[in-house]
Amino acid sequence: MNLELQLRRLGVFALRIIPLTLADTIATLLGSLFYHILKQRRRYIERNLRYVFSGRTIGQREFNTYVKNTFVNYSRHMVDFLRLGFMTGEDFSVDMVGIENAFEALKLNRGCVLLTLHLGNWDYAGAYLATRGVPISALVEDIDPAMLDLYTEHRERTGMRTFPVSRSAFAFVSTIKSNRLLAILGDRDVVGNGLPVQFFSGIRKVPRGLGEIIIKKQLPVVFGYMVYHPGKKQRYLGYIEPMVFFSGSVDEFNKCMVEKFEEFIRSYPDQWLVFQPEWVDELRA
Fewer CB within 10 Å, N- or C-terminus of the chain? Predict the structure, then answer.
C-alpha cells in the first residue's frame, strides 16, 4: 500500500467536509511542524534563499521567517491542489492579470508555450485557466504511476490535459496541431540531462531542448505565475505577460528565461517551492 497516496486521498475526503478557513489553519500548523522536523528539506530551502538574497543584507530572524513561510505556503498550496479533486469553475478565487495575453498568442494559430516555474500553485493555475476557456496542456514530472494517476485526475477535471515529460515531443506536436497553450515548468531539470546556467549567484540546470524547439518552431512564449495572495479579496494572484518570440541562440533564450524567473522569485521568495538539492555544487558533493 502506498501510504502517501492513501494520505492524499484521505486529505481530499477531509477537505470536502471541513471549512476552508479550518483547512488553512491546519495547513499552517503542519507547515510549521514540517519546518522543525524535516531538517534536510529545511537545509535545501535555506540554500535556495541564500542565493535569492545574495547581495542583500537580511537578518537571521527575517531569513528564518522566509524559510518557515516556505513550508507553510507549500502546505496551503497542497490544500488547494487536493481541492481540485472536487472544485468547480465557480470555486476558484483568483485575481487574474493578463489572461488576454494567452488568448492573443493563440490567435496566431501555432500554439503557445507558457513558461512558468515552481512558484506558488502551478497546478491551481492550469486548472483555473482551463475553466476560463484557455485550451491548456502541461508537461508534468514522471512519478510513481499510482500517484501520477491521482494527480492527473485532479489536474484534468477542469479540462487541462497533461503529458509526462517523457512524452514531451508528443506534447509539443499536439500543442502546435491543436493550437493549445503548453505550460512548462522551466526552473528544474527533472530528467537529469539539463543545461547548467547562471541562476542568481549560483549554477542550476534547466531543461535541455526547450530553447531549441521554441526557437526552431518559432513558438510564441508567455511568462507567468500564480501565487498565494493572503490578505486580499481573492485567494490567488495570477499573472501572464505579453507574448514574446525568440530567434537568437539557446544561450540567449536560457538567459532571458532565468532572468524572468529570478524576477518572479525575488517578488515571492517564500513561494519558490523547490525542496530538492539541485544547485550544481550540491550535485557534485
Answer: N
DSSP for 44-61 reads HHHHHHHHHTTTS---HH
Q: For residue 111, with 0-12 CB atoms within 10 Å meaning exposed, 13-18 middle and 19 or more buried, which class applies?
A: buried
Residue-wise pLDDT tens digits, 81-139: 999 989 999 999 999 999 999 999 999 999 999 999 999 999 999 999 999 999 999 99
Q: With bands split at pLDDT 50, 70 and 90, how would you rate the model's confidence at 285?
A: very low
pTM above 0.85, yes or no: yes
Domain boundaries, the chain: 3-284
Nearest to 105 by CA among 221, 225, 210: 221
Q: How many Å apart are CA 166 and CA 122, to the nearest integer?
A: 19
Q: Which amino acid is at 226?
A: M
What pLDDT is attached to residue 3? 66
